[in-house]
Amino acid sequence: AQTVTQSQPEMSVQEAETVTLSCTYDTSESDYYLFWYKQPPSRQMILVIRQEAYKQQNATENRFSVNFQKAAKSFSLKISDSQLGDAAMYFCAYRSRNNDMRFGAGTRLTVKP
Amino acid sequence: GAGVSQSPRYKVAKRGQDVALRCDPISGHVSLFWYQQALGQGPEFLTYFQNEAQLDKSGLPSDRFFAERPEGSVSTLKIQRTQQEDSAVYLCASSPPTGNTIYFGEGSWLTVV
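YS: structure for the whole thing
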């Protein structure tokens, strides 16, 4: 089974600064998808960004970008110009093609004004 | 609404009571997933349906947990003889036939007292 590891239980960033959240995964598959989800206290999972493993170009969504290193099985999330509304739990997730999705344990991000 | 709908949003059950949690996926979504999220942890996979077929139930923690999706749309997660360790948020998610993104509901918060 695939496993997803987030080694940073908590991270803190100053407003307007940049922060990087780490994620590694273990798989024997070559075709899969990777995601970052944001979860505020309401527990609603909100998609932040996604990456197809066959694409070499790193995904970018406004202030959010990823550093996808397929050989190293690493998928980090960079948040630029951090805002107070970015504070939440962030989950890295792996999904094999047409299969279930597995999550990491999460990183709690605090944004300091 | 257009999103994944879950009910009840909040449920308090006495230990030993049976509960049923309902998920109404986005119309046309073939895949449906159930996750269990304990406080302070990431979502843990429970089970996965493609249409009415339950393709993976490896995450169900015990035979007290049962899920069904008889007509390939609405799904019900049933927990028999609830125990305190069943207290968690139960997240339902669905995905379309051709997409790779999973869309989540707001969750059903179960507290067993």
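YS: worth flagging: Chain B has a mean pLDDT of 93.
IM: good catch. Also The two ends of chain B are 32 Å apart (CA to CA).
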